[in-house]
Amino acid sequence: MAASRFLLLGLLANLAFTAALASDNTPLQDFCVADTKSQVVVNGLACKDPKTVQANDFSSSGLQIAGNTSNLVGSKVTPVTAAQVPGLNTLGISLARIDYAPWGINPPHTHPRASEILTVLEGSLEVGFVTSNPENRHVTKVIQKGDVFVFPVGLIHYQRNVGNGNAIAIAALSSQNPGVITIANAVFGSNPDIASDILVKAFQVDKNVITHIQSKF
Ligand SMILES: *[C@@H]1O[C@H](CO)[C@@H](O)[C@H](O)[C@H]1NC(C)=O
């Protein structure tokens, strides 16, 4: 009797705990097209009245146009996120076109909120990501037109065009707003600067090396 009462109590406690953790992690309506004029602050963007939603809310144009790669890294990302397509709000996906000049790079960066799956439309790319501590294993290969590569959420990754022509890739990401942290810009180009003596210890180099790199960002 005592044992079965104990079991029942345990079961109830377990149920209560599960209920406390339960929440919907998928959308609760067909769509929540972003109301870009709303002042309401939510995790994502407020929905506009579904009756006013139009096909154009789920559409954008121009992804056939090459990005301008005349910059220091030789690449250009053209995003298609909830900022460009309001219908993506709450759906957990987005897209980007990436253009690469010959030997251009998409510098080491992470997406704090998304895994990425990338396919090559033109050219050849050297791609890679690095696993977390303590292994810091560098997983890398060269991929060709038609190949696909996956960058797991949060891991530092990069691409380089390893051809003498332009390269083009399309990346799909598992967030309406993946976010981008470009390592060099975040560490050496923060505003205000991270104290150089912190970076001296972190990177184990002289202060003049740190101030030189900081001056580039
Ligand atoms: C590409 O960007 C460079 C540098 O900002 C600029 O000088 C050039 O005019 C741009 N080219 C086109 C076609 O927009």
UniProtKB/TrEMBL annotation:
Name the Pfam families on file: Cupin_1
Keywords, comma-separated and alphabetical? Apoplast, Disulfide bond, Glycoprotein, Manganese, Metal-binding, Secreted, Signal
Q: Which InterPro entries does the record cross-reference, listed alphabetically?
A: Cupin_1 (IPR006045), Germin (IPR001929), Germin_Mn-BS (IPR019780), RmlC-like_jellyroll (IPR014710), RmlC_Cupin_sf (IPR011051)
Question: What does UniProt give as GO cellular component?
Answer: apoplast
Q: Where does oxalate bind?
A: 106, 111, 116
Domain spans labelled Cupin type-1:
70-211
Q: Which residues form the signal peptide?
A: 1-22
Query: Is Secreted tagged as a keyword?
Result: yes
Cysteines joined through disulfide linkages: 32-47
Query: Subcellular localization, per the record?
Result: Secreted, Extracellular space, Apoplast
Q: Where does Mn(2+) bind?
A: 109, 111, 116, 157
Identify the domain of life: Eukaryota
* GO molecular function terms attached to this record: manganese ion binding
Question: Which family does the record assign?
Answer: Belongs to the germin family.
What role does it play? May play a role in plant defense. Probably has no oxalate oxidase activity even if the active site is conserved.
Return the protein name: Germin-like protein
